[in-house]
Design a protein that fits this description.
Largest sheet: 3 strands, parallel
Shape: flat
Strand order of the largest sheet: 1-2-3
Number of strands: 3
Strand content: 5-15%
Helix content: 25-40%
Length: 122
């Protein structure tokens, strides 16, 4: 999702590219779209505080970094999206998907697809 959102970054951003790779559609496999929102789950998923390491600190220290690295802050993408999630995913739980994407499928022109109840982490 972030690569598709990259053209929406401000020109003064260190992540900005004048001519980023063109993206035509997004397939989101239980991906986090909000870096700050995922922090409470990262130790379980990654074993340590990797988001803070990558971002150089906590969200309250670098809000602009978190905003520019979080696709959800750069919406709308204007591209078709398919969101795939496992009902029993304990790395990025289904509740995370519902918190991040409530009622936004139409605005984002995407289609949500929930995987079989037996499916765990993707």
């Amino acid at each position: 999702m972030w690569a598709a959102a990259r053209p929406r970054l401000p020109k003064e951003s260190v992540l900005y590219a004048a001519d980023p790779l063109p993206i035509r559609a997004v397939l989101n496999l239980a991906g986090t779209a909000d870096m700050a929102a995922y922090i409470p789950l990262e130790n379980h998923a990654c074993g340590s505080a990797v988001i803070e390491d990558v971002m150089g600190g906590k969200p309250n220290q670098f809000p602009e970094r978190y905003a520019q690295a979080s696709a959800i802050k750069l919406l709308p993408l204007g591209l078709p999206q398919l969101i795939v999630w496992g009902h029993e995913d304990d790395v990025v739980p289904m509740s995370f998907r519902h918190e991040l994407y409530p009622g936004r499928e139409t605005r984002w022109r995407s289609r949500a697809f929930d995987v079989s109840p037996e499916c765990r982490t993707l």
